[in-house]
Amino acid sequence: MELYNGLINNLIEELASLPGIGVKSAQRLAFHIIGLPQSRVDHIANTMMKARAGVRYCSECCNLSDADTCPICSNGRRDHSTIMVVESPRDLAAYEKTGRYEGVYHVLHGAISPMLGIGPGDIRLKELMTRLEGDIQEVIIATNSSLEGETTAMYISKLVKPIGIKVTRIASGVPVGGDLENIDEVTLLRALEGRTEI
Ligand code: ZN
Asked: So what CATH class is 76-171?
């Protein structure tokens, strides 16, 4: 038996399809949205559409940005010769929250996973290699400590080392399989400071 009519059901289904939102949360959100003034809902929907249409990848680090280069890459006070390679914009955000990293980033948007059929060509590796033609002192690999993250780290290391650029890996204080965004700042900083050359 359908509990609600089509419009409400559609809304609940769409919300439940978002990551981290189960059916119960989707229902709660749907009822909340329906209870909001029309103008508020228009504003939320508009913000989503504008963000989707206007946000692109930074031409340098591939982070999400609404300009050609993101605020980090266009900041002249950052150390542009140190690149920290992360899997996702969320990982970048986690390191930025520590406020202690002064270099720049490179966002891969994924990790190599032979099991899932994700190869080197499916993540933003080519863009990283292009950046390494510039004056780069160190590449810090901060991919997750999952099997995919380690595979990706090894792959990048093999590509970068022959160029003569120092390659380091963050220390393994990061729990296995742990998403960097769920790790507290002290642990992240310790992992960064304890990085070793690979
Ligand atoms: Zn950038």
From this structure: alpha beta
To the nearest 10°, report the CA torsion of 25, 28, 34, 35. -140
For 140-149, 158-167, 172-181, which range has the lowest pLDDT when averaged over its residues?
A: 172-181
Angle at which helices 6-16 and 23-35 cross, to 10°: 130
In the reported structure, the alpha carbon of residue 57 is separated from the centroid of ligand 1 by a whole-number distance in angstroms of: 8
pLDDT at 1: 47
Between the CA of 168 and the centroid of ligand 1 the distance, in Å, is 21
Write out the residue limits of the CATH 3.40.1360.10 domain(s) in the chain: 76-171
* CATH of the domain spanning 6-54, picked from 1.10.8.420, 2.60.40.420, 3.40.50.300, 3.90.220.20: 1.10.8.420
For the entire predicted model, the pTM comes to 0.78
Q: How many alpha carbons lie under 13 Å from residue 19 in its C-beta half-sphere?
A: 0
Distance 58 CA to ligand 1 centre (A): 5
Tell how far the Cα of 90 is from the centroid of ligand 1, in angstroms. 14
| Cα 53 to ligand 1 centre (Å) | 18
Quote the ligand 1 centre to 16 CA distance (angstroms): 32
Neighbours of 116 (CB within 10 A): 11
Report the Cα 88 to chain-centroid distance in Å: 2
